[in-house]
Design a protein that fits this description.
Oligomer: heterotrimer
CATH architecture of the largest domain in chain A: 3-Layer(aba) Sandwich
Number of strands of chain B: 0
Number of domains of chain B: 2
Shape of chain A: elongated
Chains: A alpha+beta (325), B mainly alpha (270), C mainly alpha (238)
Number of helices of chain A: 9
Radius of gyration of chain B: 22 Å
CATH architecture of the largest domain in chain B: Orthogonal Bundle
Low-confidence stretches of chain B: none
CATH topology of the largest domain in chain B: MetI-like fold
Largest sheet of chain B: none
Strand order of the largest sheet of chain A: 6-7-8-3-9-10
Order of helices and strands of chain A: EEEHEEEHHHEHEHEEHHEEEEEEHE
Low-confidence stretches of chain A: 317-325
Mean pLDDT of chain A: 88
């Protein structure tokens, strides 16, 4: 299903959560809404779901205006950060819920539930209650539950936020595989840029109730539309008034025309990469990222004077690109 | 759930109607009936010697029962929440006993034990101690029925707070008493206050148990609730107004209690 | 605590059987006793059931709805806790008795008892359900909606099951209160066989053994209620 969000605005008391946001989600794609807390990404997702009503603007699904429609009538599947599991029901009953209230025949329900439990790897746990499961298992159950009713779009609100790092990584990869297999249009809200880059086809970067940029992960990283996007999606250093990526910074012992003088404050060895913290003339601190080899060649140590430049800078472009995928 | 406007308004209407009929109307009616014959008539009914001594008796009994139950309540709450003695679960259930036992049975029980011919009765009478048909018995009855309130308010607070603060105090060198006084007590003060208010309300309003152990003699064993009952049961020209007047007096006292409950209630659930 | 609570209650039991088990048995199985128990139990069950439904409804409105004066109404719920029962009884005969301003003379004293007990038992269910309702995770209701459940379905399958322990424990307390209530019914119920009034009459008329026997039955019921509370409620941590 294709989703079109058109000039949607939403305020809570005196706080503007969304400011005339427009976005298209193509059929079958996986779009990530990426941004810091308060950027409006969850609000946007909930408006798409019908759990909130926009103050102005429209939401269209496959061309039909659903702005006033209830969540029950939109054909969505929603997954919450804290699982929203039905605590008094077993895993099986949770997953079956959507089908049972639609009065599907028992045999069909059982078959579909079994299929989904197998898909998410919870078959042996079907008789347990949510409180007996780990966080990762509960979230997989929530996904199975949402998928059971064959939604036209899957909406996930920071689904892995409450989980341990290793479980997060595992589920991320699993979600991408699932999407590739099932092909359901998916919108994912996250504040973790690594997650967005790893999982999504398209990322919409949000800040302060607006969309700053929409593009593929590569586009967002290589051609950020604003300083905010550049800083949010990856590490940055400021050299000579411009934002550059640490790995684009060249460190040399030889002075040259476009190079800036800097003093080495700290050399941090992070396995293969080396991070060098430098003090610039104005007193600010910048970071350069070098390989081990480069560092050894330069024999860098604290207190050394070096010359830094950014010849291949990934600079933030001044013109924001159009917000469509 | 987003409830439709119509449903929301209907529910609200039903709830408010129910509360109006059940709560407000009756109480309003008592006030009206009390002052039906004028304020001075009502006033004279609550200033008769019987009424005045009934008032004081109720107050005195409460003044004895409430502190006793507060101390007992805090102690038991500490026992339930902090220590690991066996039989805690049993104690926990027993605490609810006064909630579920009819007050009349309580009165009967006390008569059977402390009254003439009772288990301790003859011994007590021999030593000139009158429990039944005397204020002492009424105090015991009141203590029984208002027993659980402080415990039930304080125990959850203690459980919720955990004993880390007390452990910290111990590592800093505080003795048990100092820890209790400076750390534990302040943390439960709103729970205690609320429990005290509930206990007071119960103690002032008690009638069932007290009716059994009382001899209904004005001046010595007639509490304010008993006075209301007595006047309401008598067939006399103005007696019923007297009952209303005394009832209004009690109602005013309980409204003060209700006010205290409303103010303290939110503070204990922090 | 034993001095005040346990010993007296033990004494009641002893007295009940003091004239022999045979007498005890006949005291509780004679037609008068049986009908007293029937009436008391029946009325209490009915009141508890009505209070369960209305109490939950009131709790819902107080938690989920907003209107001017809500805080005042919320405070009012505690009125039956704070008000002496005899005053409640007096107010009820005021309104529904012979001199009723509405001419609502309750032909049957029993109906008066019903109203009195409804008054007294109101706060139990409301105050038991309210905190649970406040803590309820709204996301679970949203999840049900996203899965296609109508409001009624969500209420029935998701919300009420979560409230069940609170409703049950509140109802159990209300029931126990009704069984033992004295002050609010003593003025109305001259003709209605309420257990507490019968026991009182027995004591006054010098029939302590009969009183004790009936009391034992009530005590047994009370203990059953305590067991029920243990299973359904969090009595230790409300």
């Amino acid at each position: 299903m294709r989703i079109d969000v058109h000039a949607v605005s939403k305020s809570f008391a005196d706080f503007t959560a969304l400011s005339s946001v427009t976005l298209q989600v193509p059929e079958g794609s996986l779009v990530a809404l990426l941004g810091p807390s308060g950027s409006g990404k969850s609000t946007l997702l909930r408006i798409i779901a019908g759990l909130e009503e926009p103050d102005s603007g429209r939401v269209l699904m496959d061309g039909a205006d659903v702005t006033a429609a209830r969540p029950q009538d939109r054909g969505i599947g929603f997954v919450f950060q804290h699982y929203a599991a039905f605590a008094h029901m077993t895993v099986r009953e949770n997953v079956a819920f959507g089908l049972r209230i639609r009065k599907r025949p028992k045999a069909d329900v059982t078959a579909r539930v079994n299929e989904l439990l197998g898909l998410v790897g919870l078959t042996q746990w079907s008789g347990q209650h949510p409180h007996q499961l780990s966080g990762g298992q509960r979230q997989r159950m929530a996904l199975a539950r949402a998928l059971a009713i064959e939604p036209r779009v899957l909406l996930l609100d920071e689904p892995f936020g409450a989980l341990d790092a290793s479980v997060r990584a595992e589920l991320r990869a699993w979600l991408r595989r699932l999407h590739d297999e099932q092909g359901v249009t998916t919108v994912l809200v996250t504040h973790d840029q690594e997650e967005a880059m790893e999982v999504a086809d398209t990322i919409a970067v949000m800040n302060g109730g607006r969309i700053e940029q929409v593009g593929s992960p590569r586009e967002i990283y290589d051609k950020p539309a604003s300083e905010f996007v550049m800083g949010f999606v990856g590490p940055v250093s400021r050299l000579d008034g411009k934002l550059v990526r640490p790995h684009d910074v060249t460190v040399s012992l030889i002075q040259s025309e476009d190079a800036i003088e800097a003093m080495v404050l700290r050399v941090v060895h992070l396995g293969f990469e080396v991070r060098v913290e430098l003090e610039l003339p104005g007193g600010e601190v910048a970071r350069a990222q070098l390989t081990r080899g480069q560092t050894e060649e330069l024999e860098l140590a604290r207190g050394d004077i070096v010359y830094v430049r950014s010849p291949l800078a990934t600079e933030a472009t001044q013109t924001p690109s159009a917000p469509s995928a | 759930m987003r409830v439709s406007r119509r449903a929301r308004l209907s529910l609200r209407g039903i709830a408010l109607l129910y509360l109006l009929i059940l709560l407000l109307l009756p109480v309003g009616a008592v006030f009206i009936r009390t002052f039906e014959h004028g304020f001075s008539t009502a006033w004279s009914w609550i200033t008769t010697p019987a009424a005045v001594s009934a008032f004081w008796l109720s107050v005195v009994i409460a003044l004895i029962a409430v502190p006793l139950n507060t101390i007992f309540g805090v102690g038991t709450a500490l026992l339930l929440a902090r220590s690991k003695v066996r039989g805690r679960k049993l104690l926990n259930s027993l605490i609810d006993l006064p909630f579920v036992v009819s007050p009349v049975i309580v009165g009967l029980a006390l008569v059977l034990v402390y009254g003439q011919g009772g288990w301790f009765g003859s011994w007590l009478l021999k030593h000139g101690i009158m429990i039944i048909y005397a204020p002492a018995g009424m105090v015991i009855a009141t203590v029984f029925v208002s027993l659980p309130f402080v415990v039930r308010e304080v125990a959850p607070v203690l459980l919720e707070a955990g004993d880390e603060q007390e452990q910290a105090a111990a590592t800093l060198g505080a003795s048990s008493w100092q820890t209790f006084w400076r750390v534990t007590l302040p943390s439960i003060r709103w729970g205690v206050a609320y429990g005290v208010v509930l206990t007071t309300a119960r103690a002032l309003g008690e009638i069932g148990a007290v009716a059994v152990v009382s001899s209904n003699v004005a001046g010595s064993t007639l509490t304010l609730p008993l006075l209301v009952q007595q006047r309401a049961s008598q067939i006399g020209a103005g007696q019923i107004t007297g009952a209303y007047a005394a009832a209004t007096e009690l109602a005013v006292m309980s409204l003060i209690v209700l006010l205290a409950m409303t103010v303290l209630g939110p503070r204990r659930a922090r | 605590m034993s001095v005040i609570v346990l010993i007296p209650l033990a004494a009641v039991t002893v007295k009940a059987v003091s004239s022999g088990l045979g007498t005890f048995w006949s005291s509780v199985t004679n037609s008068f006793a049986v009908s007293t128990l029937e009436v008391t139990l029946g009325t209490s069950v009915l009141v508890a059931a009505i209070s369960a439904v209305m109490g939950t409804l009131v709790a819902w409105v107080l938690v989920r709805d907003e209107f001017p004066g809500k805080r005042f109404i919320n405070a009012l719920i505690d009125l039956p806790f704070a008000l002496p029962t005899i005053v409640a009884g007096l107010t009820l005969i005021t309104l529904y008795g012979p001199n009723s301003p509405f001419g609502l003379h309750l032909a049957y004293a029993w109906a008066g008892v019903l109203v009195a007990l409804l008054f007294v038992s109101l706060p139990f269910v409301v105050r038991s359900v309210q905190p649970v309702l406040i803590e309820l995770d709204r996301e679970v209701e949203e999840a049900a909606a996203s899965l296609g459940a109508s409001n009624l379905t969500t209420l029935r399958r998701i919300v009420l099951p979560s409230l069940r322990p609170a409703i049950l424990s509140g109802t159990a307390l209300a029931f126990a209160r009704c069984m033992g209530e004295y002050g609010s019914v003593v003025l109305i119920a001259a003709k209605v066989k309420i257990a507490s009034l019968v026991i009182f009459a027995d004591i006054e008329n010098g029939a302590p053994q009969a009183a004790a026997s009936l009391s034992v039955v009530l005590l047994l019921i009370a203990v059953l209620v305590l067991f029920a509370l243990r299973r359904w409620g969090d009595r230790g941590a409300r």
